[in-house]
Design a protein that fits this description.
two-stranded antiparallel ribbon, flat, binds zinc ion
Length: about 100
């Protein structure tokens, strides 16, 4: 018998996104309906040390688009399937 342990997440399980600067400071922003109304809330620089994280803003725009898409897809009603992402690197529960 083979037992397989996998960890998966659905889009609706994603509650927040964490940005960590190379200085170690973290900024956690919620993902959800509020994000869509507020628009781009992706930080472009570290709130602690002021280091710019993006040069031209395109990375921040792409992240905002990704987060907006996550929020939209997580709110989808009536889908006949469930989309899950497998999380790699978690410790094996059998050990
Ligand atoms: Zn920093």
């Amino acid at each position: 018998m083979t037992i397989e342990t996998r960890a998966t997440v659905e889009l609706k399980d994603l509650a927040a996104v964490e940005y960590q600067c190379n200085c170690g400071a973290k900024s956690v922003r919620p993902i959800g309906g509020g994000l869509r109304e507020r628009g781009n809330t992706v930080p472009v620089k570290c709130e602690a040390c002021g280091e710019l994280w993006t040069v031209d803003g395109s990375v921040a725009r792409h992240i905002a688009q990704l987060l907006n898409l996550v929020a939209v897809l997580a709110d989808q009603k009536g889908a006949r399937f469930t989309l899950r992402f497998e999380v790699a690197g978690l410790p094996d529960a059998r050990k």
